[in-house]
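Sequence in, structure out.
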Amino acid sequence: MTPLPPGKVVGIRVREHRELHSLTQAQLAERLKTEFDWVIDRSMLARIESGERQVNVDELFKLAAILDTTPVLLLTPADESELMAPTPWRAMTSSRARAWITDEVRMREQDTDRYQVATDLAWRRSLEFHSEVGRLLSKIAALHGEERIEDVQVDTELAPKAAAAVAVLELQLELATQHHNWVTHVGPWDWPDPAERLALLESHPLFTEQAAISLFGRDPLAEIVDRHNEAKPPKITTGDGAADRVRGLVEHGLDVVDELAAAVRDRLASIPARRERPSTRSTGERPA
């Protein structure tokens, strides 16, 4: 049997999956247009299935999605009796081609050292990203008293925490305004940059709302305003009075930020990070 080029394999596999789902070429074209905004007609699909017209990467992913399969299954023959030739070097079986596509093995013609450098770099970045996401999800789960993120009731518990990000932005805006007013009407700013005081809250917005409500029974901005009103400032009649008013707002705001930051630090310190040992990947060759 003559090994099939990749474009021919894709065409055959598209036809097989289309027929598996009892779709006509016209019906498949309509679904691609409706769901993926890919304007394609029946004749073009016929050319793809015959191998006369090759698909690009974007189109391959759309076809895999709409046919409820995976790109790797569209790229490889259906069984081991069919060989394909993805490179001029040699033909290979379906399982061998899938292993190469999914980075389980390398082709023996490829340079071992360069292959290792390339794959190690890609997998290291991927593992670092997944580890960071895993730590964040563990903290979110612990915030709700659960060990796994899968056990958190998203609709009733997690979704409302999105409001925390809004609270952080409002707090940043309020303090930035106060900082601007102080420099404009009074003079040099004698305290640390408010952005530095807000760094922890900005890094962990999901904890901000909970910390504020736990400490004050209300959101951060409401607490700043209430504290300032409790001081019952005198009526402003002079420039010095206006400066004192602005200074009071700034001091109250920074006090609230400090208390929130301390609460968030304490909360984070009590949540253990999940540690996972990445699985060892095989880079050896399989028999062709």
